[in-house]
Please model this.
Amino acid sequence: MSDQETRIDPSTDTQAGIAEPLTGDIVIDSALRDLDSAEPHDLDAQIELAESLQRTLQGRLADLGD
Model:
């Protein structure tokens, strides 16, 4: 499989039939699903969930150093 065949078009979304990405980490996947489920017109909710995802990712990365 070529590198080009494995790329995902960022302009498409899960509504277009593309499966959501899974990291294999249930906590990160849950935070990603939460962000994905935010109402499109609720900017405050999107920001709050994105910040939560960022904290989750930072925590997971910090755990790698232990």
Notes: The longest helix spans residues 43-64. The chain has two helices and no strands. Residues 8-17 have pLDDT under 50 and may be disordered.
